[in-house]
Amino acid sequence: MRLLAWHFDFHTPGYVRVNTNPDVASAARALRDAGVEEIITFAKCHFGYAYYPTRVGTPHPGMKGDAFGDLQAACKAEGLKVLAYISFGIDGQAGEQHLDWCQIGPSGSRGRPGHFISVCPFTPYTDDLMLPQVAEVIERYRPDGFFFDTMGAMGVCLCEACRKSFREVTGQEIPQNPDDPLQATYGRFRHDRGVALIARVGDFIQARLPGATVGFNQVGSLPYPERMPASITRLTLDPSTQGPQSLAFSLNAAYGSTADRPCDVMPTIFNQGWGDWSLSPDLLLRQVGAAVWARGARLYVGDRLHPQNRLDRRTQHALSVLRDLHDAMAKEMPPESATLVPDVLLVHSPSATQGEDMRFFFDGRVRDRLGVISGAHHLFLDSGANATVVGEAFLEKRIDRAGLVVLPEVPALAPETEEILRSYVERGGHALIVGRPPRVGGQPLGWLGLSFEEDPWQDHIYVPPWGDAPEVLVRGDFYRAALTGAEVICPAIPAWDARHGHRYGWGIGPACESPSPYPALACASVGAGKVWTFGTPILSDYAQSGNWQQAVWWKGLLDRMGFPRRAFLECETGGVELVVYADARTTWAVLVHHAVEQLVGRWARSVGPLPAVPVRLHVAPLGRRVRQVLAREQVLRFTVDEDALTVPLVMDSVWRVVRIEWEQFV
Predict the structure, then answer these.
(1) Strands in 293-441 per DSSP E
(2) Residue 507's closest CA among 436, 459, 455, 457?
(3) Per-residue pLDDT reduced to its tens digit, 320-364
(4) Pfam families given for it (predicted)?
(5) What is the pTM of this model?
(6) d(CA 333, CA 250)
(7) Whether the Cβ atoms of residue 173 and residue 120 lie closer than 8 Å to each other
(8) Phi, psi of 625 (to 5 degrees)
(9) Does the N-terminal peptide bond of residue 609 adopt cis geometry, omega within 30 degrees of 0?
(10) What residue spans define the domains of the chain?
(11) CB within 8 A of 362, min separation 6: which ones?
(12) How far is CA 400 from CA 341, 343, 405, 620, in A?
């Protein structure tokens, strides 16, 4: 089981006293005793101040001695690794002293003197200050690596250096109208030079500190899901501290579990995120920690170091809570040799956040575009599926063991991804396309047995229920499709006399009594496999509305599709996550209870006790005979038929690991 790591935030104005009464030895011992294996501590903050006696940058004016060096030495003495934090794209001192280094957005410079100022890494800032400071830290301290923050520096910038560079590449001025066709070219320009820059920084470090850990916050994570350069050795997933937390960190851990390099998931210990100093409830800390560790990712806890260079009481408490959680889970989690075996792969494409033509790359609104993958993760979780998220770049290595591959409202696929997916289906696999099908090379996906119109027909429809329940409403653009080989499974039901863009006053109209001739759900045979197309944007709708009828309907869909499943949950309330591992003789089902999280304003809290939720775990025997089923070393009762082992449980705790030991093949 992955260990624990700790990130100490330390952005401190120049008038604050720093390191005047440190206790780094006690801090290092407390971190070691809690099982922390690595920390991030500040070499340079957003104000642009260095926390060591730099000769390259600006030392913190209120600092006594060497705050970074003192803490690093104490932690190294206790066996902890130490990464140096460098604020990459915000540097108040650099911005004040070099106005031509400032990042210029559409509304002007970002920041104000004496505070945070966004800087552009494509000015001399990188070569004249940032890289020399990195080299200085390496020479003085030989840290275990670097963590770079504030990657918004790769976004839209209208400084003279960027304008000149864009003119040299394209012969054009940077477009400022969002509808300008040149936005796609500008997005690709930002992307290519940004990736090249982080590769150069990574190479710079590896040349001077071979084997160093190098990570850039967010880059390569859900907002920017693509393969990173080889010199970038770590992915850091740092989702928003606003909004739901335990499900958000579960989603990020799911993505990280299928990436091509180690992944850290970074929540905070605070009730209101990085800018707060009031503790998150213990229950929420446990839910987030369990969700991350269940997926095999490392929990990298965000905290704030006291300016005196010592641990705050809140840190001590959070360390205790998470140490106890880790120690308890470590006794029951599968060994490192076990394999994560999801049945369902939710494919996350760069086009989902950056646009089909890359026009939205680092445009400042990427979090708004994560609703689809968030809704997909949530809906499959509430449906009891053994599902995970995989980046499009990593699909090929994961696809052969999947029972179902899902394209969740993906705008576009790379041609090589289409080939991988089609080959998988032709060999007997199952694929589910949700929403309007993706485009490949600007053309519609051509083997679904459907031909879609270009303009939406309705902005909400209903789908027929599986039983006697009412029709199920799904909001969002729906496109009519003609059959070109697919079979209609469920027809779309429009609202009564509805037209796209119109409403019954403020609301939505009732369903028509008769369905339309257009498919909401269709299925086509492709080789030995099947491809299903559900043409509604149910995943983005579920992210916004949490319509419980959609979850019930979705579970019915999964039950009817007939794809192979190693395991699934029955849970009427939803909110219990299933993560499955296996080796030759054992299956582990890790359950995480996400209930009781509340939103107050923009902030989440989980206040217990957790409700006791009955669930039924179903596991496919795959020709094996059950030896015993255990949880917390207690033998559990179960039933077996030819299709499944069934274990009834009551989830009344944050997590539980059910271990199924197989005796032999029958």
Answers:
(1) 298-304, 339-340, 344-348, 387-391, 404-408, 412-413, 430-434, 439-440
(2) 459
(3) 999 999 999 999 999 999 999 999 999 999 999 999 999 999 998
(4) GHL6 (PF14871)
(5) 0.97
(6) 16
(7) no
(8) -100, 135
(9) yes
(10) 4-86+126-150+185-330, 339-565, 569-665
(11) 151, 152, 154, 155, 156, 190, 191, 194, 224
(12) 11, 11, 10, 18
**Fold agreement between 4-86+126-150+185-330 and 339-565:** no
Instruction: Spell out the residues 6+ positions from residue 536 whose beta carbon is closer than 8 angstroms to its own.
Output: 434, 435, 461, 463, 474, 476, 478, 492, 520
CATH assignment of 4-86+126-150+185-330?
Answer: 3.20.20.80
Q: Quote the tokens at residue 150.
A: 């504030």
Q: Mean per-residue pLDDT for 118-125?
A: 98
At residue 579, what are phi and psi to the nearest 5 degrees? -130, 130
Question: In one letter, which amino acid is 223?
Answer: P
pLDDT exceeds 90 at position 643:
no
Task: Give the span between the Cα atoms of 421 and 425, in whole angstroms.
Answer: 6
* 569-665 is classed CATH 2.60.40.1180: yes
State in words which class domain 339-565 has: alpha beta
Torsion of CA 478, 375, 183, 439, to 10 degrees: -50
Q: Which of 543, 264, 599 shows the shortest CA–CA distance to 380?
A: 543
Model confidence pLDDT, tens digit, residues 207-250: 999 999 999 999 999 999 999 999 999 999 999 999 989 999 99
- Residue 665 pLDDT level (bands cut at 50, 70, 90): low
